[in-house]
Amino acid sequence: MIRFVAGRVVLLFPTLVGMSILIFLMVRLLPGDVVDVMFAGDVAATAAAKVAIRRALGLAAPLPVQYFDFVTGAVTGRLGASLTSGESVSQILGRAVPITVELAVLATMIATTVGIPLGVVSSLRRNTAFDLAAHIGGLIGLSLPNFWFATLALLMTSVFFHWIPPVTWISPGRDPLGNLSQLILPATAIAVYLMATVMRMTRTSMLEVLRQDYVRTAHAKGARPGRVLFHHALRNSLIPVVTVIGFQIGGLMGGAAVVEIIFGLPGMGYTLVEGIYNRDYPVIQAAALLLAAVFVVLNLIVDLLYAVVDPRIGVA
Amino acid sequence: MMVVLVKARDGPVSAVARPWRVLELARLRHHLIGVLGMTIIAATVGTAVFGPRAWRVGYADEVAHRLLGPSAVHPLGTDTLGRDELSRVIHGAQVSLQVGIIAVLIALALGTVIGVLTGFYRRGLDAVLMRVVDIMFAFPGLVLAVLIAGLLGPSRTNAMIAIGIVYAPAFARVVRGSTLSILGLPFVEAARSLGARDWWIIRRHILPNILAPLIVLTTLYLSTAILAEAALSFLGLGTQPPEPSWGSMLEASRAHMQQAPWLAISPGLAIMIVVLGFNFLGDGLRDVLDPQLRDA
Question: What backbone torsions phi and psi does residue B141 show, to the nearest 5 degrees?
C-alpha cells in the first residue's frame, strides 16, 4: 500500500512541471503585455520607461531564466507581490486555498449523499415512473447553470427569508456553524452537476452489477436482500462512481470559481478572475498553477480512495 | 444529419464495417427523450433564425421604460436601460448557438487531426502530442478557458477560441482510441496489403468509422460549450455588452435583483432549456449509436 501511494505521489511531478510550463508560456506568449496595459492611454510613456518597468518585473530576462525564477518562486513560496495591491501573492493565495478546498469537499459530500441513494433506488425501480423522473431530473441537473442556480438561491433566500449569507469570510476554526451557513448555498450550487453525474453513474453501474452471477448466488444462498444490496452489489458498483467523481473535480473547481464570485468568497477562482481583470500577472500565474496543483492533488486522493473501495487495485 | 445518412448509404456496408452505426440514426425517432431533445433544439434554432422577424419590438435603449415588470408589450419586462427583455433573449439564442457550434467545431477539428495523427503514426509524435493533451486534460476546463479568454482579451471570438482549445483534448483522446481500435481490424490490413497509402486508409476506413462516437461527443460538448460561453460572458470574459448574451444578461440582472427579479429568470431559463435539449439528444444518440450502453 505504501509503495502504491509513493508511486502515485512521484507521478505528480511530471504533471506539475508540464502544467507550470504551459501556464508560464500562456502568460508570456499570448498577446497583451502587462507593461503595455499599465501604460495604456499614457501618451507620455517613453520606451525607456517601459524597459525599466519590464526589468523591474523580471520580464526582460530570457524565457528559460524567467521560468527558472517562476519555479523556484513557486517552490519556495516567494511568488512576488500583486501588481495592484502590493500584497504578497503567497499571502493572498494562503487565504484563498482553504476556501476553495472547503467548498469542493462540501460540494462532493452533498453530491454523494444525495446522488448515490437516488441512483440506487433508480436502478432497483428500473423503468418505473420514479426511474423516468430521476432520468429527466438528472439531465436537468446536468443542464442547470450553477451561476444561475446560485443567483436564484440568493434571490430566494433574500426574498423569502430576508437572509443573505454574510459577505465577509468566516473561518471554520472561529465559528464552525457560521462558516457552514455561509458555505451551504454556494456548495449546493456547485454540487448540483456532480450530484446528477453521480446519480446517473450509480444507476448504470448498479444495473451492471445486479446482473452478475455472484449477486444471483448471494440471493440463492439466502442472504437477506439488504445485505446483497449493500455488501455485494453497492460496494462493487461504487468503483466507476469514484472514477467519475475524480473526472468531475475539475468541473467542481471551475464551478467554484464562478460561484465564489457570486457569493463574494475570496477563494482561488475569485483571485484568478480578479487577477485577470487587473492584468495582475504574478497573481494570475500563481493562482492558475495552484488551482491546477490542488486539482491534481484532489485527483490523487480520489485515486487512493479507489484502492480503499477496491482492494484489488492496491495490490496490483 | 441528412448529409450523414446519405453519406452512410453511399458507403460499402459490409459485415466487417459494423461501426457504420450511423445508419441506425433513424431509430432515434423511437427514443422519447431523444425526440424531446430534437424538438427543443429545433425550437431554439427556429427562435434564433425567425425570432427577430416574428418579435419586432426592438431592443434599443428607452430609458423612460427601464425595469418595467412583465406586461403585454414587454412579456419578459425591460432591463435597466429600458430594453425589451424578450427580444434580447431571442438575440441571445443566436449568440449562444453561434458560439457553441463554432467552439465545438474548433475542438472537433483540432481533436480529430491530433487524434488521427497520433493514433496512426505512433511513436515520436504520439508521445509528444499526447503528453500535451494529458496536461491540458489535467486542468479544470473552465479555469483553463477563463485563463485563455482572459489573456487573449475579453471578446466573443476569443471565448470561442478558448472553449475550442479547452475541449480539443477530449476529442483527441476519443479519436485516438477509436483510430487505434480500427487499425487493428482485418480490413485495414487488407487495404495495406493491397498497397493503399496512409491518407487513403485514413479517409476511407478510419474517418467513416469514427463518425458514430464523434457525433455523440459533438452533441454532448455542444451543451458544455454553450454553458461555458454563458459562464465566460457571466464573468465578463465572453460576449461584450451591448450585444445580448444570456450569460452577461444574467450578470447584469444581479445589480437589480430586488427591484426586477424577473430579469434573473429568463436568461438562465433559456440557457437551461437549450443545454437540456442537447443533453436529451446526446442521451438519445448514445443509446441508439452505442448499443453496449443501451441498457444503461
Answer: -50, -55
- Cα–Cα distances (Å) from A263 to A152, A182, B3, B175, in that order, read 12, 9, 47, 40
Q: How many CA atoms lie within 13 A of B272 on its CB side?
A: 21
Across the interface, whether the CB atoms of B143 and A135 are under 8 A apart is answered: no
Report residue A246 as a C-alpha cell: 475524480
Chain B residues with CB under 8 Å of A142 CB are 223, 275, 279
Asked if A232 contacts A218 with a C-beta cutoff of 8 angstroms, the reply is: yes
Other CB atoms within a 10 A radius of the CB of residue B73 amount to 11
List the single residue in A207, A252, A258 with the smallest CB-CB distance to B234: A258
Longest Cα pair distance anywhere in chain B, in angstroms?
Answer: 77
Amino acid letter for position A314: G
- The one-letter amino acid at B1: M
Residue-wise pLDDT tens digits, B208-245: 888 888 888 888 899 889 999 999 999 888 888 788 88
What interface predicted TM-score (ipTM) does this complex get?
0.80
Interface of B with A in 74-103 (CB under 8 A): none
Element (H, E) at B219: helix B211-234
Contact present, A202 and A243 (Cβ < 8 Å): no
Q: A142 and B275: CB-CB below 8 Å? A: yes
Q: Is residue B157 less than 8 Å (CB to CB) from chain A?
A: no
User: Which chain A residues are closer than 8 Å to B221 by Cβ?
Assistant: none
Cβ contact A254–B140 (<8 Å): yes
DSSP A315: H
- What the block records as the C-alpha cell of B206 is 478510419
HSE value, Cβ hemisphere, 13 Å, CA-based, for A187: 20
Give the pLDDT score at B13: 35
Chain A residue at shortest CA distance from B223 = A143
pTM of the model as a whole: 0.82
The grid cell for B68 is 418595467
Nearest-5° angle of CA A177, CA A267, CA B270?
95
How far is Cα A120 from Cα A230, in angstroms, rounded to an integer? 10
Beta bridge partners of A88: A81
pLDDT at residue B203 tops 80: yes
